[in-house]
Design goal:
Length: 315
Amino acid sequence: MTFLFRLALVSALSLTVATAEAAPALRGNVTVTNKVVTVADMFDDAGALAETAIFSAPAPGTTGQVDIATIRAAAARVGIANFEANGINAVTVTRAGMTVDEATLENLVMTELSTRGLIGPGVNSTIQFSRFIDPIQVSTNGVAVRLDSLRYTKGGRDFSVRFMLADGTQTLDVSGTIDMTIDMPHLAANLPAGTILRPENVVMKSVPVGQADAYGYVPIEQLVGMALNRQSREGMLLRASDVSAPLTVAKNDVVTIIYRRGPMTLTVKGQAITSASRGTSLQVLNLMSNRVITATAVSPGTVEVDGAAVSMAGL
């Protein structure tokens, strides 16, 4: 056996071993995101045929099985004569996918409106699409859908929106309406003027945001403890102008007038000519001097005169 013959024989044997080692190896479980299953999806060491389609993928979000006989036939069609089956009788193929439904789309619209500052705190929003949207299965292992554009004018009801599905090639155009309401305080019963509001006197009811803006929203915390300015009926929406601070001193009340100047404090009896809440001014008749003075209501039955503004002679 010549040297050249031996060298050729060794080279041939080496090539045979290398070819055997490079034979594709079948995988038992495959997950894809495209419409087709490629050789690289089905086999390790796929080689030059890696990007070649070998099967159609199942529907997005579903799983199917392919038996070994079908795999051998499909592999032969694309030029793979042999592969390592590794004892596998069937391959499970899953197409990654997610469901896009109306709730998903509504949430995207709500998020966009909130981001733009068009939905304030405490606002309840209801979205109604102009048509029913069947759930859509999209092939993805990431974001299933994103909002591409939204047309909406603040204070209106109508909107139109475009969604981009996961593969980026399919869009979904939808229109609809959005109703925004906010809970506002209403009277729970008929109450006379001067009633000091307690929590049980107020109930919260939903009203359209436009109406709330027109009337002026008043938190319930700013109503409890305030007095009704007039007789009011059950169910009335309460506005800031409907209430005021409760009277500390009422007209015709007998009061104690306090006058302070330096270390000196003088008290005399008087009668309120006008009414006032705590910290506000009123007219008071000094019952000893019969003078009318201006004082400040400090507590029920007590008013105080500013010593810098009124002299003792003027009291």
